[in-house]
Write a structure and sequence with these properties.
With 397 residues, the protein is of the alpha/beta class. The protein is built from 12 helices and 13 strands. α2 runs antiparallel to α9 and α11 packs across α12.
Length: 397
């Protein structure tokens, strides 16, 4: 038999989905499992959003539609980005995709040639390196270190730039760390992009989920409008994970490439879901701020409770809905701790190395579940925590 394409041997899956599969297997056997492995809000879209979807179906909005998306949705997104991020983006530079991942994949496919180097955060979303490798590019990680408060280090990034470097990927707020890049860091990254003529993929899927301050997009900085592509979607900020709705913004010279890729892949996004998305952007009932307020309460409780677990250290994330827990004092590897938590306590979480080598001493928990579920999860973890060493004497905890 003929072999598969060589790119399949260098691409990788997602640790979260692997853990999820095992957790569901245990559930099918009758076990009680608390799912803190997936980044899926336990909210659902607001009623006006669902009503708009139903109306669209009843009105026959189930036909082929423009490849780049409904004009009304692209216009609504331009307004939304202006109101929430102070960005002046033409609707003509926005493309709708069946999910944020597809938007990211298309953007990278449009930009990466074999041998091109792509700078990306480690720990970070696994797709950054996997897609780069699949396209023949060279992924070059920059470390988000606890010693640097999980912020990118512009000096490290500049030292890794070569004549082959083409793309810088940023993700703020970040998955898995919850880091919101500081203005100083983003300003310096923008200066590096201009200086070295880099394209920037700004993954802003968690832009609305921040705990204090005002979100600032990478596109806001001098010289960035002509070199930045924003990747975003409806899954996180609007609790529309199963709708599979994402979008990308791109400079005019790059946008036609995204259009061409859409023509050659998915043709268009389901028309009726786009009508629901328009209503979501209007957010007449304030569903997104309410959801973020609830996440803020969960964050405070969950981080406090996690720090009761022997060997766990967790700082409050600045954005997203993940607790990034340092387990370096626990005496066991993150993989073994996650195995014990899942198999013995019925709590599913992700070993940090699933997000890159720099995450080896961490575990990621999603706190997109109710406060009651999060409390029960910590109680279960405490019951099995004797399997790893107690916090060393002299610890502040």
């Amino acid at each position: 038999m003929r072999p598969l394409a060589s790119r399949m041997s260098v691409m990788s899956g997602e640790g979260a989905l692997t853990i999820f599969a095992r957790a569901k297997e245990l559930e099918r056997s009758g076990r009680s499992i608390i799912h803190l492995e997936l980044g899926e809000p336990d909210f659902h879209p607001a009623k006006p959003v669902n009503d708009a979807l139903k109306r669209a179906i009843d009105d026959g909005k189930d036909r082929y539609c423009p490849v780049v998306g409904l004009p009304a949705l692209r216009e609504a997104l331009a307004v939304y980005l202006r109101e929430t991020r102070s960005l002046d983006i033409s609707p003509q530079n926005i493309i709708i995709a069946p999910g944020c991942k597809i938007a990211l994949f298309m953007a990278m496919m449009a930009l990466i040639d074999p041998g091109d180097e792509v700078l990306y955060p480690d720990p970070g979303f696994p797709g950054y390196a996997s897609i780069t490798l699949g396209l023949g590019g060279v992924p070059v990680p920059f470390v988000l270190s606890g010693k640097n408060h999980l912020q990118p280090d512009p000096k490290e990034i500049e030292a890794k730039i070569t004549p082959r470097t083409k793309i810088l990927i940023t993700n703020s707020p970040g998955n898995p760390t919850g880091t919101v890049y500081t203005d100083e860091v983003q300003r310096r990254l923008a200066e590096l992009a201009v200086k070295h003529d880099l394209l920037v993929l700004s993954d802003e899927i968690y832009a609305r989920i921040i705990y204090g301050g005002t979100y600032v997009s990478m596109m806001s900085y001098p010289g960035m409008e002509e070199r930045t592509l924003i990747i975003d979607g409806f899954s996180k900020s609007f609790a529309m994970t199963g709708w599979r709705l994402g979008y990308a913004t791109a400079p005019p010279r790059i946008f036609p490439a995204l259009d061409l890729l859409a023509v050659n892949t998915y043709t268009c996004v389901a028309e009726f879901t786009q009508y629901g998305a328009i209503e979501a952007l209007r957010d007449r009932e304030g569903a997104t701020p309410r959801m973020v307020g609830e996440f803020a309460r969960r964050r405070e409780q969950f981080v406090r409770d996690l720090n009761r677990v022997p060997g766990f250290r967790c700082a409050p994330p600045e954005g997203a809905f993940y607790a990034w827990v340092d387990i370096s004092e626990a005496g066991l590897s993150a993989e073994e701790i996650c195995r014990i938590m899942l198999e013995d306590a019925g709590v599913a979480a992700i070993p940090g190395a699933a997000f890159g080598p720099a995450g080896a001493d961490y575990v990621r928990f999603s706190f997109a579940s109710s406060t009651a579920i999060l409390k029960e999860a910590v109680e279960r973890i405490l019951q099995v925590s004797s399997a790893w060493q107690r916090t060393p004497a002299g610890s502040s905890r």
